[in-house]
Specification:
Keywords: ATP-binding, Nucleotide-binding, Transport
Radius of gyration: 17 Å
Protein name: ABC transporter ATP-binding protein
GO molecular function: ATP binding; ATP hydrolysis activity
CATH superfamily: P-loop containing nucleotide triphosphate hydrolases
Pfam family, one: ABC_tran
Strand content: 25-35%
CATH architecture: 3-Layer(aba) Sandwich
Shape: globular
Organism: Pedobacter frigiditerrae
CATH topology: Rossmann fold
Bound molecules: adenosine-5'-triphosphate
Length: 204
Amino acid sequence: MNISLNNVGRRFNKEWIFKNIDYTFKHGEKYAVLGPNGSGKSTLLSILLGSLTPSEGEIGYSNLEVIRVEDVYQYISFAAPYLDLVEEFTLQETIDFHFQFKAYAHGLNAAEVLGLLGLKKSQDKALKHFSSGMKQRTKLALACCSNTPLLFLDEPTSNLDTQGVDWYLQLIEKFAPNKMVIVGSNQEHEYGFCKNLLSISDYK
Ligand SMILES: Nc1ncnc2c1ncn2[C@@H]1O[C@H](COP(=O)(O)OP(=O)(O)OP(=O)(O)O)[C@@H](O)[C@H]1O
């Protein structure tokens, strides 16, 4: 799938966050959306995800086959620190629930995902008792281990320690080689694998 932005701009009230973005995100490529705090990275990711509409311009999705609106979620995975998990679910329930809606990446099952997470001891613990780093790991594992052609990651290493950052990079290497990955970030260690850099400051 390719995603094309044609003269896309977004404003909140009278404030333009960005304008005139003409850009094509191509199937299987890796992109980093860069910019300082408050520049509009998350806003652009929301537009690409389809959860926010542009204030001007058009966004187009091209795919070899037609995707029905109700099936779009099967094509996209998304992880972000501000994305909520169901706090009452245990880790095991979270994994089982998530993969009722999305297919596992090739060769994976619930036990494998749990193993990959390195949180086996916490499989029966409710997420409300997880640390912020454990929650972030869970979100990244769910997103990366889903068999979707598009992977959106906003600030993927927030709340992760050095070991966690290495773990995230291994996850990307293993599960994202054929996916389009779009990372919203201002930290190089989390988007070093992205060949294409898009700076929001160029569209102010
Ligand atoms: N729903 C909203 N209503 C009004 N203003 C908003 C809304 N969402 C975002 N903004 C504003 O849009 C601007 C861009 O916010 P955004 O969260 O996209 O930035 P960001 O680059 O992702 O920031 P950070 O690096 O801090 O996560 C900010 O000035 C923010 O206050």
